[in-house]
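Sequence, please.
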């Protein structure tokens, strides 16, 4: 993991001043725009070195131009209304918010829309959606890409499932799942004839992946017997490289099968409701017209997909970060119950699962951000990881410190009306997981050096693909 280069750190501790978009001026010289930095999600090396890049971008200014390579929503926007192509940045260039204060400000600003169809006529909007692959449309119509009033109405429907009280009720179920997965790993090792502390486990496959997937499947009401098939579809989608998604027939077919499966499940829940979120939503739909069929599908899709790989990565990132820092590891082992919360918050800050928002936000009117003029129509992303390592906000940001007093101020879950609805659930799962894992297996350690572990590729999701451990 690259840390901030010393020269950038020096620049960063100086007060931030940057009046114009990415332009550097010296006396007698016209402004020179620095070269656009590519945040290359498709490059397997990108995430490992990303913090050094973010540090350079923060030093450039609070809002800079970057290029990401295009993605599906952006292509759809171009197909719907080419004349709406971004202002303030051209082609596949976006504006990128680099620092904590401005990232927070941008996420709270009502003039910045999440709907990629913003500013389009109904006909353009239709064209844009039609340009998307059919199986991707449920995500395009989901909470994450809607603005008020639709966003407000839909979010209200599911919010009660993620309150503190709802989380308390879930605790025993999550604890049981954690215990079962660890029991299973012990049994598998015993069957291979391994004994403690030399037993092997592939942490992602045996634990980090199945835990959140099972929790969200249960919450939604996906019957246990269907879960293995659903996981195959979701995995094909999530493992597919976003740049190659359109040519990945297996991923695309899997998404279509998942959609058809869900439509069938809604019918079943309509006839025989059970105690779960899908039944609740189907009921809400029949109660009035609060939720269209498209919206129901989109909601289930986004709840299932958004909580998937993110929480998997939080669990993996926490284990690797802790094991990579022996003094923090020792501190945690001395009091797993007392330190679990701190470890979760610091992991979210240090190696949060989402580096930056992957689909463009659209600026609805001219505005100022951190003293920088942002023109109407700009495509904008915010750097969550960059903000979480902003030295103006967090002291020694590149140090992993599970007792950091302000780690909970991280913005790994975003901010404002779109702040992650599943954050309380992800936090709870991770706290129970870390506490139980290190309490039961205090000798748990990496089977390979931390530096040899590979981060996954694509969609700005930070997480290790495989984490072989010994316990
Ligand atoms: C560590 C785990 C997680 C991380 C880091 C994470 C991160 C995020 C972020 C950054 C956003 C804001 C996106 C934006 O502003 O456009 C978001 C939104 C969302 N997340 Fe999560 N998430 C996690 C877990 C979950 C879980 C477990 C669920 C489902 C149960 C979930 C469901 C959602 C949904 C539905 C939204 C959209 C909310 C809205 O637009 O109003 N997430 N998440």
């Amino acid at each position: 993991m690259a840390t901030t280069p010393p020269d950038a750190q020096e620049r960063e501790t100086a007060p931030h001043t940057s009046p114009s978009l990415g332009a550097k001026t010296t006396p007698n010289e016209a402004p020179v725009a620095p070269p656009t930095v590519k945040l290359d999600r498709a490059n397997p090396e990108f995430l490992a070195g990303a913090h050094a890049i973010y540090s350079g971008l923060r030093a450039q200014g609070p809002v800079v131009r970057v290029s990401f390579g295009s993605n599906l929503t952006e292509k759809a926007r171009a197909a719907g209304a080419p004349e709406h192509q971004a202002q303030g940045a051209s082609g596949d260039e976006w504006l990128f918010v680099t620092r904590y204060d401005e990232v927070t400000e941008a996420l709270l600003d009502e003039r910045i829309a999440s709907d990629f169809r913003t500013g389009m006529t109904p006909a353009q909007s239709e064209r844009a959606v039609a340009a998307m692959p059919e199986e991707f449309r449920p995500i395009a119509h989901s909470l994450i890409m809607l603005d008020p009033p639709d966003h407000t109405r839909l979010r209200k429907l599911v919010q009660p499932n993620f309150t503190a009280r709802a989380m308390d009720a879930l605790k025993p179920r999550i604890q049981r799942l954690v215990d079962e997965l660890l029991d299973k790993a012990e049994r598998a090792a015993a069957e291979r004839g391994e004994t403690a502390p030399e037993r092997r486990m592939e942490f992602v496959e045996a634990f980090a992946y199945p835990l959140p997937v099972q929790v969200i499947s249960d919450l939604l009401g996906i019957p246990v017997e269907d879960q293995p098939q659903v996981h195959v579809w979701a995995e094909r989608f999530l493992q597919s490289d976003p740049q190659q998604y359109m040519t990945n027939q297996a991923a695309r077919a899997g998404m279509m099968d998942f959609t058809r499966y869900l439509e069938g499940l809604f019918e079943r829940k309509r006839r025989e409701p059970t105690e779960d979120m899908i039944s609740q939503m189907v009921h809400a739909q029949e109660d009035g017209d609060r939720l269209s069929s498209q919206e129901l599908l989109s909601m289930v899709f986004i709840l299932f997909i958004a909580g998937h790989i993110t929480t998997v990565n939080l669990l993996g990132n926490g284990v690797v970060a802790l094991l990579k820092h022996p003094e923090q590891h020792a501190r945690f082992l001395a009091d797993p119950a007392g330190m679990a919360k701190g470890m979760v918050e610091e992991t979210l800050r240090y190696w949060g699962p989402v580096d930056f928002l992957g689909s463009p936000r659209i600026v609805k009117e001219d505005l100022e951000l951190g003293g920088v003029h942002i023109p109407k129509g700009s495509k904008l992303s915010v750097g969550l990881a960059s903000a979480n390592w902003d030295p103006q906000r967090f002291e020694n940001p590149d140090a992993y410190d599970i007792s950091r007093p302000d780690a909970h101020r991280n913005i790994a879950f975003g901010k404002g009306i779109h702040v992650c609805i599943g954050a309380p659930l992800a936090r709870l799962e991770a706290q129970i997981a870390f506490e139980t894992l290190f309490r039961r297996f205090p000798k748990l350690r990496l089977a390979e050096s931390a530096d040899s572990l590979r981060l996954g590729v694509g969609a700005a999701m930070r997480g290790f693909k495989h984490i072989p451990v010994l316990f």
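Confidence is low (pLDDT under 50) at residues 1-11, 13-20, 22-31.
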